[in-house]
Write a structure and sequence with these properties.
A: 541 residues; eight-stranded mixed β-sheet; 21 strands; B: mainly beta; Glucose Oxidase, domain 1; nine-stranded mixed β-sheet; disordered N terminus
Chain lengths: 541, 345
Amino acid sequence: MTTVPRALLAIDAGSATTSVALLGKPWKRWRLLGSMAAPAGAPIGALASTLAARLISTDPRMAVELSVSAESIGDLPRLEAVSSPPQTLAVLGASRRAVGLLEGVAARTPWRIRTASPETHDPREMTELALRPEVAAILVGAGDPPGPDERGWLDDLAGLVGAATRRRPELRVVLAGPVAARPAWAEGAGRPFDGSQERIVEGPPLGMRSGPDEPLREILEGLLTSRDSRHTAVRALLSLADTIDRTVELIDVGLDGGLRAMASPGIADQGPAAVAVRTAQAALVPRDIDEDDVEAVLAWTTGSLDRHRMGDRLMDLRAAPWADVSGEGARLRLAATRAALARLDALSPDIAGMPSPDVTIVSGGAFMIAPARATALAVADTIRRPGTTQLAADHARLLGPIGTIDDPDERRDLVADLADDLLAPIGSLVIVANVPTGRRQAARVGQISLDGDVQGRHDLVSGEVAFIDLAPGDQALATFEFRDAVRVGHRARRVAMPVSGGVAGLAIDLRDVPLRLPERRDRRRAALAAWGELAWPGDER
Amino acid sequence: MAGASAPTRAAVDEAPGIELVARRRLLISPVDAFFRLQPGDHALVKEGEAVGRGQPILEHFREPRTLVVPGASGEGDQLIPGDRAAPLGSRGREGQHLDGELLFRSGGRWRIAGGERPEPLESPVAGVVHEVRAGTGVTIRSTANAILGQTALAGPSWGKLQVATGPDGELRAQHVDVGMAGSIIVAGARMDAEALTRARAVGIRGVVVAALGIKEQRDFLASERRGRAAVHGLPPFGILVLDGASRRPIASPLMALLEAIEGGMVAILGDPPALVIDDPSILLPSPPPDLVRVRSGPLAGAEGTWAGLAGPRRFPAGVTLEAAFVRFGGRPPVAIPFGDLERFA
């Protein structure tokens, strides 16, 4: 933004839906005037015109002040973020172990991964993989010096990848180790690697025990567009953490991938900092649905669908993610979201190991349509971090578009103005670990007292999830008293913490950490159904 | 549908907004048909060459393998990966085929993708060869119209189109008879694995169906793999899935197109998944601009006319969604979530 407009459009063009928000500056600060989402591919102008018409019918004076009209809205400045479909990365190594190490790193990037090694594929199959039109880049790695299991095949691998670079001049290659130094590379590529080819990037070699992570991930992410909404959202998250002076976690599950990021405010002269994991494996529904994907979703459902029917539903969800959103479709979507969240949690142990953030923001179409309590329960089911956090939703999908502003000061100012509108409060989530279990099921293990905008006292029962009404905007001091010491961030019998309200109120989770569901399917479904009854409107299935 | 109440006249008469509904493109032209070339496969056509339907365009090995042969000294400058290793039909001392594709050279030895039992692939459409990339694929550009589907299994294939059942029908194995041999049939809303197996057995060349479940897809593909590995291979057969996996009728604009081209020659392509209409002289019907179809939810398959935006509404499971009014027949308009609707263009 080079000039200061009084209204603008924030657009997040996702893989499943396109969201348009109308921002205006009627007085001294920016406000969210409206937002709307439609299936991906819907014309942005039509969405913006609908928003303009709603503003004009609600507050014509403000529309005039901001020069917003149905005809001119398309001319407003735009902040536009795009979610690109994942590109395919061929991960090649000279041994199964080497490929496993590389795959572990690449899985924590937005790339869609296909792996091959001489132990699992013959050279023809590996060449076929490298030449597939959908493969946009190759990650090939080896130890330095190569491990005993790599030495026999490393020359062949170097020759194979070198030949692929010769046959596909557009192919990007990341060399994680001394692959190009092998004489066979020059035989395949037609010339020795001298570092002058921009499309071939050198990365750190493989470690013997653990894979290189951050440097190699940065290289792999650097090959992708920086305007992707999961990339720009992290920049907006930094500004938000700095503005509200809180640690903020962002959890985003989309059709083609997921994001988990933790941002901390700046301290002294240091700016805010963030750790982020973007991964294609946390997609709501994987592109190629296999038995494991079906089972992962079935594990979170309470209905009576068999594997095949569930596979059909997931295929339809993948093909038309914006469709069948109400009724059973909403429950299926949230079951798929839980499966995706579980994958995201498993791929981000570094973030999972951090203390509970002050604020957790959920983002993505699956969260936006579900009832607030169901969203809170989905997060509590999968992100099992003892502590308390305030849950909120990026309901208008503003973080991605705001992150496209390059100037950090300008971005911070906009976030500061919009902080109240940006997040829709879901409620506070308290996860208590090491809850003493009674001999009887449903034994009382403690109590919670609320003191503030809402007063009251409630008994706490081992293994339960409890929702206590606490309206959006309400604040209270929650005091937990247990029979024995529990863990809520730290170990204690008596814990007091401030909580704030939301549409879902205060959610208290006294289940096991990590969550242990019954092995038998009928019992597991019964347990999920019992918790689900708290979260979903009872008579509307 | 809970929450879907009849609107006032004023609400229905609001701005159309139909452009916000997901648009489904029915036809594309031209079509770039892509045929995969595995390393070792041999393209039989060159870029710019005109090809006719049924003309062999590539040859692939049914038993592919990798050969290792010593590279002659000094040859490195002449031969490059992707080149043919030797003229067609060349054999080594032990009788093995040498007419494969050079993969790469390492330690002075070439790896060659070759194999046994070459099998030609015939072009299902007439067109011009747009691109040939060894080890990657052949692209043929056809100026014909094509109906886009969602997925294609097996194929390519071609034959005369025959509508075997109505848009909501389900073709059972006992209804698949030999009289349909050589044709591509329109099989209605869904088809089970048994009917697919029988269709292939009686010589049907392809199936166009609205939905095919994940089990049927897996069963068919497993059967396809077994058949391809057999001694005599399989005749061409393709399945074009128009909508998805859950049962639903074929949309009326699609059915109108299929009925218009019935009896004409068509081809099923795998990439893009499409049904190519051979005869350019057929007048293809186009749907009314205000026609919308409910693609999912309790009213899945129903078609009606657009009656305006309904704004955010509450629907079952307590979800609030942007909705639109749709008029079914002469009844009052019903509010349907935007996402459950599709229109055609």
